[in-house]
Amino acid sequence: MQHRIIVLGAGYTGAIAAGRLAKRLHREDAAITLVNAEPDFVERVRMHQLATGQDLKPRPFSEMFAGTGVELKLAKVTGLDADRKTVTVADVNGAGVEELPYDTLVYALGSGWNFQGVPGTAEHAYEIAGRPGALRLREGLARLDAGQTVVVVGGGLTGLEAATEIAEARPDLDVTLAVDGVLGDWLSPKGRAHLRKVIGTLGITVHENTAVTGVDADRVTTADGTAIPAAVTVWATGFAVHPIVRATTLEVTGTGQIVVDATMRSVSHPDVYAVGDAAMAMGPGNKPLRMSCASGTLAAWQAAEAIAARLTGGKLPNVPIRYVNQCISLGRRNGLIQYVTADDRSVGAVLTGRLAAVYKELVCKGAAWGVANPTFGLPVRRRRVTGTPAAAGSAVKATA
Fold this sequence. Notes:
Blueprint: E1 3-8, H1 12-24, E2 30-36, H2 47-51, H3 61-64, E3 71-81, E4 86-91, E5 97-101, E6 104-107, E7 111-113, H4 121-124, H5 131-142, E8 149-153, H6 157-169, E9 174-178, H7 189-201, E10 205-207, E11 212-216, E12 219-222, E13 227-229, E14 232-235, E15 239-241, E16 258-259, E17 272-274, E18 279-280, H8 293-312, E19 325-329, E20 335-340, E21 346-352, H9 353-372
Parallel strand pairs: 1-2, 1-6, 2-3, 6-17, 8-9, 8-14, 9-10, 16-18
Antiparallel strand pairs: 3-4, 4-5, 7-15, 11-12, 12-13, 19-20, 20-21
């Protein structure tokens, strides 16, 4: 009987995990099902481009996984019973609800936008955490006339990329950035200086140390009562994980992330692995890994190799999960690459300008290419299944 592996979510981490597992396990022994609500891969790191009217290259899963043995199931996950080892899904074409049993589960549903309970945000703000939100923002921006104001709330990577992309694509609009703190306060002095230079060149107004406490259709309100006009408000203050696991018996953090060990295995349910934004994993310096493609990709490799090792009696992997840089698009012609320590602290070295923009573009293309080529540079060794994850290597420790 085939070992049933279900991967929930086909973002960067889920797609990589599924593809890597298909290259590691013999097809007669393992059935790999990838559950996703959309038929093609979404480059989440490019949503600010999609929102400003740029068309992205289609990447259908039918082509990406052709000949791999991975079965794509187009469905929305509606429930998870970690004790019964079943997933409930609703077919996207209206064929009904189905319960899928699994032997091993890879949970990679990722995250969505986090409106943080601020009044009016859910009703009036736009988000770019996924394709539907980016397309909705695209329509909203297209309706604006020259001189109208767009307010981007949030000074992290998503907020910076959204503000600069909009300002570059629509120089006829007034773009405002509301930051709860100092602009680029996590960057090195050189990084902050370049960021401020680009922001100034693009004509973006910045409100620092500004907490937005309310959103209306035509304005945002700050903690001190100031009203900032906003024909469009883009909410980019962070992400929240999919809420489905809160209703399960899986051990999760207060933010709803699944607590995992160094091999991305659930500490409460050994047949469940979590990767990407959905997982609470520890990185260098015993610090939690932040939600990012940079750490999520390595986590997906770690999980896939660990599952394969435990099923086939192989050696558990030790994939170093560390950071190298933070890549920030500042429009299509400018960028900032902030180099960091292994535990994600900024150092003095940066790359800026057009060269940084090219670097970031190569990173984005490389990430998408890596989804379709999860074992590039490594020998393809499809091994026979000899046991179950719980029985094979469960007592072996691995460090990240």
